[in-house]
Please model this.
Amino acid sequence: MACRISELVIDCADPEALAVFWSEILGYVELGRDDDGSIEIGPAEAGFGGPQPTLILSPSSDPRRGKLPLHIDVSPTDRDHEAEWERLLALGARPADVGQSGAESWKVLADPEGNEFCLLHRRLPPLGSA
Model:
């Protein structure tokens, strides 16, 4: 038997704002809230345990910012890379410089709290399509 990633937890100062930000990027919805202020978001049709991991935005008074040992990569599904780049910027992401040359197959951004993530150039089909 093997494991698969079911949740990714992000410590943050403002779970509310990051839940909105990441829900817009990923097409997720709010799945639940815990008494500690954590918000879980995920795919509306599958929720926890579906083919995509959910995200838990967990309140922290000392969240790490910038380059994390683990970061999120996203790929466009329904538009080209440049259109998705513009959409992410409009949602509040900002370009991040981690020393890239410009020849990479990704672009680095930071979410509203400064957590870095990458937008890959390769387009993926939406889940459920061939």
The chain has two domains: 1-63, 65-130. Strands lie at 7-12, 29-33, 39-42, 54-59, 72-74, 94-95, 106-110, 116-120. The mean pLDDT is 87.
